[in-house]
Amino acid sequence: xxxxxxxxxxxxxxxxxxxxxxxxxxxxxxxxxxxxxxxxxxxxxxxxxxxxxxxxxxxxxxxxxxxxxxxxxxxxxxxxxxxxxxxxxxxxxxxxxxxxxxxxxxxxxxxxxxxxxxxxxxxxxxxxxxxxxxxxxxxxxxxxxxxxxxxxxxxxxxxxxxxxxxxxxxxxxxxxxxxxxxxxxxxxxxxxxxxxxxxxxxxxxxxxxxxxxxxxxxxxxxxxxxxxxxxxxxxxxxxxxxxxxxxx
Length: 248
Prior knowledge:
- The chain has helices at residues 13-16, 21-40, 68-75, 89-92, 96-103, 123-135, 161-169, 181-184, 221-247; strands at residues 44-47, 58-61, 83-88, 107-111, 140-142, 173-179, 197-201.
- By secondary structure, the protein is an alpha/beta fold.
- It has one domain: Glycerol-3-phosphate (1)-acyltransferase, CATH 3.40.1130.
- Helix 2 crosses helix 3.
- The longest helix is centred in the C-terminal third of the chain and has 27 residues, at 221-247.
């Protein structure tokens, strides 16, 4: 029996087609609210906007605060309509209420967690949705290579998932360093504090720089993993070097 095409599933139509006006307006309003906060309450300074690619990209940075997604969107001056994030399918997509409430603000792309080495929702379907989402209207993904929020002011070792997605989707990674968000809205705190924040946008990393022959169509699985490891190390090094320069 032929497997149904995930791109034709109406459950994910908000990722592959023009979004309903209701969702678009709420994302835009929340973006404007964030910009107001970053202007008056937690004043935001942005450096390196000249590094933003003209194509779709995966935006990646250190992750210490609830507000990091909003900071990244504000730093490239694009509303939440233009950003998607991966989210655990077994949690965020198990009811229409969660899907509805979260998608008012953010476009979530389902990814299934491995159970005993297997996924019920294939990584190929996740990649297909990511590709369709980014292709439509030049949209982007946000991925945190640490995997989760770290302790305030500390950076965890990077995982290679972000690089794997960049290589398989053939899009650049745009690295960034966020400074101050862990003080403005610390982990496990309910309210924000009036603290200055900076976002340093760094030079992008392009997939072809990490593939031996510059052609991802001819790369086997081992070559892809090796390229992802190299790309991850460069991503982490760039962000850590910027952090070191800033705090020195």
